[in-house]
Amino acid sequence: MRDFIQDAPDTYAAEPIPDEAKTAIDALLSSGDLFRYTSERAPVALLEEEFAQLLGSKYALAVSSCSAALFLSLKALDLPKGARVLIPAFTFAAVPSAVVHAECQPVLVEVDATYRIDLQDFEAKIADCDAVLISHMRGHTSDMDAIKALAFVYDVPVIEDAAHSLGTTWNGQNIGTLGHVGCFSFQSYKMINAGEGGIMVSDDPELIARAVIMSGAYEHNWKKHAIVGEIAARWQNRLPLYNLRMQNLSACVIRPQLGELERRVRDGRANHDYVAAKLLASDMFEVPAPLAPELRAPDSLQFNLRGFTDAQAEAFMAATTRRGVGTQVFGLSQDNARAFWNWQFIPGELPELPKTRAMLARACDTRLPARLTQSELDFIADAIIDAGHEVRGTDGAPNQ
Ligand SMILES: *Cc1c(COP(=O)(O)O)cnc(C)c1O
């Protein structure tokens, strides 16, 4: 029998980091200059300039993670203790965690079977909220035109968690630049890999200046953020220092990858659409289509199991694993960090969110990095389809 596991592509293996990073790191190791504030024009400062320009934002601040960027965004908006922050009920546990860390109260909003924010529930809850934190979960963009319009009416700021959406556009504009502030991750499973790291972008110099101080620009280090320096000077000694800075080694790993982004986005989208089309040929699976203004940058694939019972969905997960292609049903895999009922650290009682719960019970997740070859994509698609047939038998018939 064919050894599926041995033949299966390793979807967790990373792409090599471009060679330019080695040269930059060598120079850094020779000088020992790892701290971003030791020298002028340090790699972290250059990354901030380049990233802001790449996205079409005025300002950027590099930090230790996207979670740190989300936390600093909430703090920089000067939300009072206990402020209510609307977040989608389908996101990564780091998002409600950042809200709790900022001493705010997460308010969960329903997400539908297309992984997008349910606008009816959003509208019902926004009036009572002080800020909105939109998580573009796995790169799926909710209707940002409607969300921005409602946020404008209720006069609440919009933070974008674009951790997993670098390269996605909405009406041609980069995701992460639509709200007041956008946050990105450089953790290894995101589009740009530095192991860990994050960055926030905004056109609001006051917000960035406050975040600069709180990220750990102690004493006169704000001078090394020349672009917001004078505003930051006013906040000196008036804001706490949380020390969430990025170090120069990370910037040296990130900067040469910025030029790779366009290719990764193009290949990731092609890979996603190729496997999605194969799954859509069977009536066992549903792959939600993008919204018209959305141009995706996927590095993973989400699809819904159609007409499966819980037991069949569990059996499907096991059958894909036996074929060497791990798929996870978000709401059926134990302790999943994206299942809202596992966020028991949120103060108060967790709300009942039947739409989100139903979606999580059938939504599958599989990694699909941009570097995969066509034969690897075929392997993954075939494994998923075969696993479906194994579980459903002849009742998983192809679409007519
Ligand atoms: C990865 C991720 C985060 C957290 O990013 P870190 O850099 O690991 O803190 C937050 N939100 C979403 C949607 C993510 O995918």
From TrEMBL:
Superkingdom, natural source: Bacteria
Q: List keywords of the entry alphabetically.
A: Pyridoxal phosphate
Q: Name one GO biological process term.
A: polysaccharide biosynthetic process
Q: Does the keyword Cell inner membrane apply?
A: no
InterPro entries attached to this UniProt entry: DegT/StrS_aminotransferase, PyrdxlP-dep_Trfase, PyrdxlP-dep_Trfase_major
- Catalytic residues, per the record, are 190
Q: Which Gene3D superfamilies match?
A: Type I PLP-dependent aspartate aminotransferase-like (Major domain) (3.40.640.10)
Sites of the modification N6-(pyridoxal phosphate)lysine?
190
GO MF terms here are:
pyridoxal phosphate binding; transaminase activity
Q: Which residues form the signal peptide?
A: none
Similarity field: Belongs to the DegT/DnrJ/EryC1 family.
Q: What is this protein called?
A: dTDP-4-amino-4,6-dideoxygalactose transaminase
